Amino acid sequence: MFTVLVSDQMDKEGLKPVLESSLVNVIFQPVHDTSVPLEQIDALLIRSATTVTEELLNRMPRLKIIGRAGVGVDNVDMDAATSNGVVVINAPDGNTISTAEHTFAMLASLVRNIPQANQSMKQGKWDRKSYQGAELYGKTLGVIGFGRIGAELAARARGFRMNVIAFDPFLTKSRAEKHRVTPVELDEVLSKSDFISVHTPLTKETKGLLNKETLQKTKQGVYILNCARGGIIDEKALYEAIESRHVKGAAIDVFEEEPAMNHPLTTLDQVITTPHIAASTSEAQKNVAEQVAIEVLNYLNGKPAPHALNLPYLDGDVFEKFSPITKLTRTLGEMSSQLFRAPVQQIELSYAGEISHQETGLFNRSFLAGFFRHRIDGYVNEVNASWIAKERDVQVAEKHENESQGYSNFVKATVIGEKDTLEVYGTFSREIGPRIVQINEFSLDFQPARHTLYVQHNDQPGVIGKVGQLLGTHDVNIATMQVGRKNEGGKAIMLLSTDKECDQSVLEAFARIDEIVSVSSIEL
Questions:
Q1: Is 276 an annotated catalytic residue?
Q2: Largest CB tally within 10 Å, which of 217, 372, 469, 483?
Q3: Phi, psi dihedral angles at 454 (to 5 degrees)
Q4: Average confidence (pLDDT) over 463-489
């Protein structure tokens, strides 16, 4: 018999799997209620109201799994849960339909002026001329970020016989064909779309993605929608673009700072807003409760948890043995993802030396965890990384080879896309730690660092000096530098570790050095 504590308000219909199980006793009480027998709890179901701390976990010695009925797990101390051997799961796709439907409802309402006309009627007016709208039929919807929600929105737009184009740096041709959308670059979405809807995660690359400069690239009279994350759109720039009548209207559900009381955008007649309710439907609440209830019940009965967000606790000896290698493969994954900014079809991992004689499944998962960390909006680690790869149609293969190029442990990661291939080689020894020893055809010896610059350049005298001078001008201190070349005077690379992250102004400054081919900022 298992005891499940439901600490937050949750849909009872969705909880039926645990409520109807003869193996489960369900308690509905806040976790901090003094009457709750914490020492007897096997599973904890929460939403956002309950905060799971290390202190709380220490008082729940029997706890095996935490189910978060929703996506975010900011209210759970993941490290403490992992060290206590407690699996944490969420419901990543429970609100997909609700959010897609809300976005499309906003789109239709926006183009037909429905909220404005409704408000006019409530004021006792009969004003038909002021609220003339337009048809969606034949118009072009540009979707920026083509994950689950973007794909569902596209399906609804096609039902209204709209043309759908999509920008996502990781959208493969096969997936685009599957969803019947046309993959394009960002500038093409901006210039060709009648409506633009953003559905990306909020990262350093996407923050302010639609700003003063990019909004000027859009069609005159475009409509903008954001039901994804506040901050993807520069709200001040959007306000000014609407005021100047370049942007005809906008529909916003999320804001940079919430609650968004008396926000300037709400004062514009051309804007419709909602208070972050895209996922707030009875069906979504039922779905997320049902997802975690089923998965918790399965896990308690000895089945795997595909939406697990943390790695189950490893015994000290096992952890000590594998931890250094998993750090190397995770670093290789992070570097590969940031160097290969394109859709990926296949990832191949090759092992040689001592490592090839060990179980490499954990190393594969740690590579994927590092790789997808920079590509999706959500918590990624060694447990759910393989599932994420499968969901995104990325094939993962591994090889065990005899040739280790003289290293005791040798890992080669090959990332294959539609047009290009990237190869990154790494090694680990207890004496020198993890090293990057080759990128594509260029050999080097680089110790991974938190802030790294990858520079492709022509091998000519003075290039290193110019790079150092540029970084010095921008108050960026170089910690280490490694160079690699294949032929004198040919193509070459630099890997530099710096004391701080290089912002966009630094990266743009590299374009003024003739010998520089490209530069990428890598954050580990």
A1: yes
A2: 372
A3: -110, 115
A4: 93
Query: Which residue(s) pair with 81 in the sheet?
Result: none
Question: Which DSSP helix (H) or strand (E) runs through 272?
Answer: strand 271-273
Tokens of 413: 């990661």
Q: Which residues contact 443 (CB under 8 A, 6 or more apart)?
A: 437, 484
Pairing assessment for the beta strands 65-68 and 491-498 based on DSSP bridges? unpaired
C-beta separation of 35 from 57 below 8 A: no
Q: Which residues of 68-82 are buried (b: 16+ CB within 10 A; e: fewer)?
A: bbbbebebbbbebbb
Q: What is the pLDDT of residue 316?
A: 55
For 347, phi and psi rounded to 5 degrees? -125, 125
Task: List pLDDT tens digits, range 21-53.
Answer: 999 999 999 999 999 999 999 999 998 889 999
Contact between residue 218 and residue 247 where contact means Cβ atoms under 8 Å apart: yes
198 vs 49, higher pLDDT:
198
Strands 516-523 and 478-485: unpaired
Catalytic site includes residue 320: no
Lowest-confidence pick of 9-13, 100-104, 202-206, 254-258: 202-206
- Mapping DSSP onto H, E and C, the string for 56-109 reads HHHCCCCCCEEEECCCCCCCECHHHHHHCCCEEECCCCCCHHHHHHHHHHHHHH
Let me know: does 400 contact 351? Beta carbons within 8 Å.
yes
Q: Which of 258, 401, 441, 508 is catalytic?
A: 258
- Catalytic residue check, 450: no
**Exactly one of 47, 229, 365, 485 is catalytic; which is it?**
229
Q: Identify residue 211 by its one-letter amino acid code.
A: N
Question: What pTM, to 2 d.p., does this model score?
Answer: 0.71
pLDDT value at residue 358: 75
Q: Are 475 and 487 in contact (CB under 8 A)?
A: no
Q: Is 207 exposed, middle or buried (0-12, 13-18, 19+ CB in 10 A)?
A: middle
Query: Pseudo-torsion of CA 326, 331, 332, 335, nearest 10°?
Result: 160
